[in-house]
Specification:
The chain has 176 residues and is α+β, with helices and mostly antiparallel strands. It has 3 helices and 11 strands. The strands form 2 sheets. Strands 3, 4, 5, 6, 7, 8 and 9 form a 7-stranded mixed beta sheet that branches. Strands 1-2-11-10 form a 4-stranded antiparallel beta sheet, with no helix packed on it. The chain is globular.
C-alpha cells in the first residue's frame, strides 16, 4: 500500500511539472524579433544542429487565418499552404508539373483521404523544398489531382525536418 502511495505521488508530481518542461522546451530562451521576414542568428551549439547558422523565417497569417508561403520546389516557385496536420507535402498535379515532376496515370495508385473525399495519389520524392533561406532535401510528397486539392500543402515531411516551428501572435515561425 505504501509503494502504491509513493508511485501515485511521483506520477502526480510529474503531471504537474510536465507542462512547464514542455513549454520551456518549445519556447526559445530569447527570441529576437525583426521587421525583416527572415532573421539569421548564430546557433548555440553546432554539435546539436545541422548547420552552424540558425535561420528563422516568420510568416504572418493571411486574412483567412491560414499561413501561405512562396516556396521553391525542385528550385521552381510554388505557393503552398502550411498544414501542420498533413503527414507529407501534398502537391496539386499542376504544381508538381511546374516543379518538373512528370507523372503517368499508372503512378496514381495510393488511396488517400482529402477534404474532398477519397482519391488516388502518386508518391514522389522532391529534390528540394525551400522557404526563404531554409531548405530541406529529399522530401516525401504525394501528388494529388487538382480537382481533389484546392491548394498544395506544406506538410510534415518538410516541417519535421526543421529545428522547430510554432505559432505565436498570428505568426508562424520556422527555425532551421
Amino acid at each position: 500500500m505504501r509503494a502504491l502511495l509513493v508511485v501515485s505521488l511521483l506520477i502526480a508530481g510529474i503531471a504537474v511539472a510536465l507542462p512547464s518542461v514542455f513549454t520551456n522546451y518549445m519556447t526559445p530562451k530569447s527570441r529576437q524579433h525583426s521587421t525583416a521576414a527572415v532573421a539569421v542568428s548564430e546557433s548555440e551549439s553546432s554539435k546539436s544542429h545541422r548547420h552552424e547558422v540558425s535561420r528563422e523565417v516568420e510568416i504572418r497569417a493571411e486574412r483567412d487565418g491560414h499561413f501561405y508561403v512562396n516556396a521553391t520546389v525542385n528550385f521552381r516557385p510554388v505557393r503552398l499552404m502550411v498544414d501542420t496536420g498533413a503527414t507529407v507535402v501534398a502537391l496539386r498535379v499542376s504544381d508538381a508539373a511546374a516543379a518538373g515532376i512528370r507523372l503517368r496515370d499508372v503512378d496514381f495508385n495510393n488511396p488517400v483521404q482529402t477534404a474532398n473525399g477519397t482519391t488516388n495519389a502518386a508518391q514522389a520524392t522532391l529534390e528540394s523544398v525551400s522557404v526563404s533561406d531554409i531548405e530541406v532535401r529529399n522530401v516525401r510528397a504525394l501528388i494529388i489531382p487538382d480537382d481533389q486539392l484546392s491548394v498544395s500543402l506544406l506538410g510534415g515531411s518538410f516541417l519535421h525536418e526543421l529545428r522547430r516551428f510554432e505559432v505565436a501572435d498570428g505568426t508562424l515561425i520556422f527555425e532551421d
